């Protein structure tokens, strides 16, 4: 498989554009996008087209949540679903923990001085902490190896870690149950699939304006999954933790820590 990182439109520097080959496939430049090799979906189908290599790939599949659903439905044997019950809680539907984490972060980004927004975000983090605490051999949701649930959570956690101290005080993450989330982030960044696409803090907090919510969308990339040597593992889980806040929760949690 191949991973390419592309910037969100709002992260483009003056004079910078997205690659022409991507814009040919996705004219508006929307990210993230995923292409799958057609022979991966239909191993017994016709041979590949040497005259038109692009015909050997599906059109880009857009939207992060939809992308996960396509992978789960089309490649169930390779999809790292983990425990089915936990996957449902974190990944499935508008009531999923990953979606509520995203919405809580968007709400806080748009109203950073509203204590109720930070409290709502802290409630979701506490719920996540409880789930992570069930994995005795952690640090991932299912234990020592990441699953789809981790990959849906990580982009929002990295944005929270970069953004919240800028608007709510450097110690704000210490006021909530952030310790296990911090360990999850640091482990994922150290190696494996997420390390390839993790964003740097400078990019995550750059050029904040009135539309902060739009600047907190997941890291952009286009991925091609092909049947090459080792492709059977392409989607398999990969293994590899002051000043007072100006808004929000008042009491620090003894279990919290930061990286």
Report on the structure:
The chain has a four-stranded mixed β-sheet with strand order 1-4-2-3. It has ten helices and four strands; from the N terminus they run βαβαβααααααααβ. Mean pLDDT is 75; it is low at 207-211 and 213-259. The relative contact order is 0.18. Helix 4 runs parallel beside helix 7, helix 5 packs parallel to helix 7 and helix 7 (148-168) crosses helix 8 (179-190). The two termini are 31 Å apart. The protein has 259 residues and is mainly alpha-helical.
Secondary-structure map:
Blueprint lengths: L1 E4 L14 H6 L7 E4 L1 H4 L19 E2 L1 H11 L9 H8 L5 H14 L4 H18 L15 H21 L10 H12 L2 H5 L3 H5 L15 E5 L34
Rounded radius of gyration (Å):
19 Å
The dominant shape is globular
Question: From the helix content, strand content and strand pairing, which structural class follows?
Answer: mainly alpha
Q: How far do the termini sit from each other?
A: 31 Å
* Relative helix content: 40-55%
Residue stretches low in confidence (pLDDT < 50, at least 5 long) are: 207-211, 213-259
Largest sheet: 4 strands, mixed
Q: How many β-strands, per DSSP?
A: 4
The average pLDDT value, as a whole number, equals 75
* Separate helix tally: 10
**What share of the residues does DSSP label as strand, in percent?**
5-15%
- Biggest sheet, strands in spatial order? 1-4-2-3
SSE sequence, one letter per element: EHEHEHHHHHHHHE
């Amino acid at each position: 498989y191949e991973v390419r990182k592309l910037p969100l439109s709002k992260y483009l520097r003056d004079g910078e554009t997205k690659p022409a080959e991507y814009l040919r496939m996705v004219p508006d430049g929307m990210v993230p996008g995923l292409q799958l090799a057609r022979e991966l979906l239909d191993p017994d189908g016709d041979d590949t087209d040497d005259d038109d290599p692009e015909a050997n790939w599906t059109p880009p599949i857009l939207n992060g949540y939809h992308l996960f659903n396509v992978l789960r439905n089309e490649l169930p044997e390779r999809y790292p679903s983990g425990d089915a019950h936990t996957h449902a809680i974190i990944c499935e539907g508008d009531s999923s923990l990953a979606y509520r984490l995203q919405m809580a972060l968007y709400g806080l980004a748009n109203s950073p001085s509203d204590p109720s927004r930070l409290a709502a975000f802290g409630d979701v983090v506490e719920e996540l902490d409880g789930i992570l605490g069930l994995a005795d051999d952690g640090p991932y949701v299912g234990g020592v190896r990441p699953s789809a649930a981790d990959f849906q959570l990580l982009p929002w956690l990295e944005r929270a870690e970069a953004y919240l101290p800028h608007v709510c005080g450097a110690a704000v993450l210490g006021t909530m149950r952030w310790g296990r989330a911090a360990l999850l982030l640091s482990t994922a960044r150290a190696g494996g699939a997420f390390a390839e696409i993790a964003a740097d803090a400078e990019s995550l907090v750059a050029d904040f304006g009135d539309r902060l919510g739009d600047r907190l969308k997941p890291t952009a990339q286009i991925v091609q999954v092909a049947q090459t040597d080792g492709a059977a593992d392409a989607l398999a889980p990969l293994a590899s933790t002051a000043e007072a806040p100006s808004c929000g929760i008042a009491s620090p949690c003894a279990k919290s820590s930061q990286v």
